[in-house]
Write a structure and sequence with these properties.
The protein is α+β, with helices and mostly antiparallel strands. Helices cover 47% and strands 17% of the residues. It has helices at residues 6-16, 20-29, 34-43, 83-86, 89-104, 110-114, 123-134, 174-191, 203-227, 245-261, 269-283, 286-291, 306-313, 338-345; strands at 59-66, 72-80, 117-118, 121-122, 139-147, 150-155, 161-168, 297-298, 301-305, 318-326. Helix 1 packs across helix 3 (34-43) and helix 10 crosses helix 11. The two termini are 36 Å apart.
Length: 348
């Protein structure tokens, strides 16, 4: 059954920037599965990485609470129906009350929070009482708590993004580590890594992205060639997880053969090849820089990776946990017929 509808075609175009006919064909080939259609377009070099157009930010806030000795941190997403309520002081006070309750009672997630007792009453009765007072439906949608030798967190000034990080470290550098984790949490709020290390990336995802990124760069090069501009290097790989010793040795041999063909004296190869290998690794680990925290260029000093910035503070600091909440992430957009919505509100 053909999967392309005008609504899906429009949404896919907004997500990928691909042409209407390409979007229609991709949707028909994938029976209307948006995620598969996005990937099909990318692997064909016809679309960029998808924007999250299918998600809508619900109203509310993200709140963080870190205990006094930086060993426990809790992250909460509390949703409301309108931005007006989300900015109300009563609502903001409520988020702090809930996140403090969760941390004080070692509550690990939203399910455990819903089953908890607060101020001598069930959490559902407590929240219903607040709903009656505030006048809007409220949902404690996400909650998590992390522990570690040292932890810290950050909430962006708009209250819509929050990050927690935990690490192990030598006791002597715990204070420095806590300060660093706060900076790294700020970095992660902006750069949106999904995993701590490239070793955490799923191999199937890496393989799929390898094909898509090569197709994207190939398509970009076609345009650069038309404009007479320098072309981008097309990588063999996209993650350090793919760069075996054999792969790097093969690249080194190719560089040596290239220098020999150019007539460069062998005695200067040792000055040239390390830079070429470094560039090769950079070109062939693009996925890590997009999704792996430790491989990303550090926003506070983009000449370093996050991993290098950590090592510069102290070699004993090792990130053990990372959580990022973005308000409304994953909530599906619901579209209603406007006339039907008005009729419903008027009781017709």
């Amino acid at each position: 059954m053909a999967g392309a509808t005008p609504k899906l075609i429009k949404e896919l175009r907004e997500m990928t920037g691909a042409g209407m006919l390409d979007c229609k064909n991709a949707l028909n080939e994938t029976d209307g599965d948006l995620e598969k259609a996005v990937q099909a377009l990318r692997e064909a070099g016809l679309g960029k990485a998808a924007k999250k157009a299918g998600n809508v930010a619900a109203e509310g806030v993200v709140a963080v609470k870190v205990n006094d000795d930086n060993t426990v941190a809790t992250l909460l997403e509390l949703n409301a129906q309108t931005d007006f309520v989300a900015k109300n002081q009563n609502f903001l006070d409520l988020t702090q009350e809930i996140v403090s309750h969760a941390q004080a009672n070692n509550i690990a997630d939203a399910e455990a929070l819903a089953a908890s007792t607060i101020n001598g009453t069930s959490f559902s009765d407590f929240l219903n009482g607040k709903i009656a007072t505030i006048g809007e439906n409220l949902v404690a949608r996400k909650l998590t708590t992390v522990t570690g030798t040292v932890v810290n967190g950050y909430v962006h000034t708009n209250g819509r993004v929050g990050v927690l990080l935990a690490a192990t470290c030598d006791e002597a550098v715990k204070e420095k580590a806590a300060t660093l984790l706060k900076s790294l949490a700020m970095h992660a709020s902006a750069m949106k890594p999904t995993v701590i290390s490239y070793t955490d990336l799923d191999p199937a995802f890496v393989d799929s992205e390898n094909r898509a990124i090569v197709a994207e760069i190939t398509a970009d090069n076609d345009e650069l060639k038309r404009l007479g501009k320098p072309l981008k290097n097309i990588p063999d790989f996209v993650s350090r997880s793919q760069l075996t010793e054999d792969a790097i040795a093969t690249a080194k041999a190719a560089f040596e053969a290239e220098l020999k063909e150019q007539g460069k004296p062998e005695k200067i190869w040792a000055n040239i090849i390390p830079g070429k290998i470094e560039r090769y690794i950079t070109d062939n680990t693009q996925l890590d820089g997009r999704f792996a925290l430790l491989s990303q260029a550090y926003v506070m000093d983009d000449k370093k990776t996050v991993e290098q910035a950590i090592a510069d503070v102290d070699a004993s600091i090792k990130i053990t946990a990372y959580v990022r909440f973005e308000l409304g992430e994953g909530i599906e957009k619901v579209e209603e017929d406007f006339a039907a919505e008005v009729a419903k509100q008027m009781g017709k």
